[in-house]
Amino acid sequence: MVRGVGRGGRGMPGRGGMGRPPFNRPRVMLLRPPFDLILAEPAFPRCKPAPDDSALTQALLKRHAELCPTPSEQASVLSLVTKLQTVLDNLVVAPGDFVACQLEEVRQVGSYKKGTMMAGKNVADIVVIMKTLPTKEAVEGLSNKVNEEVNKLTRAMGTGSVTCACTERGFTVTAAGAAVRVLVTTLHQNLRKLEPEVHLDYKVISSHLAAIRHSRWFEENAHHSSVKVLIRLLRDMCARHAGLEPLTPWMIDLLAHHCIMNNPARQALPINVAFRRALSLLAGGLFLPGCAGLPDPCEAAHARAHTALDLAAQDHAAATAQTLLRVVGRGGHRYVLGLQPFEGGKDISTEITVWDGVVVSPLAPAYQETPEPMETDDKEDDLTQDGVAA
């Protein structure tokens, strides 16, 4: 018997010894980022000059020019937003005989506020924060009041009338060539008082509060023009390829900001480099389980933006990005950007294509949903069999 083992010797870690750590220590899950050549460039110096990428740059700028709204579209949206903002601000300051609800604040959010509005989508978003609880009757009363006041302004200015229609998120004000979605929410301390049968949905209310935080963060951090260019290009690409459709606008905003600004030099990258980087990160598993992903700066610590996607959507997005990245690598960027339709109307992200003798085939899904096992009472079956055998 060795002395000292039972009383704080080397074999008893519980009493100051130097033995092994306890076996019940909780395991910490380490989230790892995908390989990023931009961040790893100091460790991998280039051996030869970078290839000429002017063709991709010109294609990106050309496609972005097509995606930008025309001056007339911007003017129509601006006119409607200005009128609506004026009416809502008056209801905040001097509601008068309006008693359907009490307004706390009015904030512009969404692509119009961020400067990333797309051509043909002349829709702006405004969040209205109520002091009172957002009942469905209060939303309907606010919609009627706004419709009345905005039409007074339009008649005084000699412009066309507007219409209001209630939705599950608030109501939409529509005019000739433009529309504004009025998103209703309430003060944060009122969230615990919401009742599903009486008020708007809790998730809808919370998402409108999050939209305010997103807009504020974007205005402070992502105001660079290159970020807005990349956002339009990525949104257009996601709209045309089914595998990338589940990506939310907020995920695209964070991805574009990361690809443009997050580099060792802390300077905005060229648009062609940032576009390739975005595809490479998605293809490398940026939005897959176990990856560090992109931290959400507007949520609690350690929250990741891509956790809003289910596992099948994460897998499909990564596989689609891998296919598109191979097409871009073989010179098919015009088809990926939508500048040129593929022969026969094929979707290059879902069908086999050939580029200069190189076959690019879409990847099979790696994630398979396993059906839940059916609950069976094995004990009763065993008892029955034993009884029959007896």
Features of this protein?
alpha+beta, disordered N terminus
Structure description:
- By secondary structure, the protein is an alpha+beta fold.
- 42% of the residues lie in helices and 10% in strands.
- The chain is built from eleven helices and seven strands.
- The protein has helices at 54-67, 71-93, 110-114, 136-157, 202-221, 225-240, 249-261, 271-283, 311-329, 333-337, 378-389, and strands at 103-109, 123-130, 163-166, 170-175, 178-186, 353-355, 358-360.
- The strands form two sheets. Strands 1-2-5-4-3 form a five-stranded mixed beta sheet, with helices on both faces.
How many β-strands, per DSSP? 7
Distance between the termini: 57 Å
**SSE order in H/E notation?**
HHEHEHEEEHHHHHHEEH
Please, what is the average pLDDT?
86
Radius of gyration using CA atoms only: 28 Å
| Largest sheet composition | 5 strands, mixed
Shape: globular
* Beta content: 5-15%
Helix content: 40-55%
Uncertain segments are: 1-15, 378-390
By helix and strand content, what is the structural category?
alpha+beta
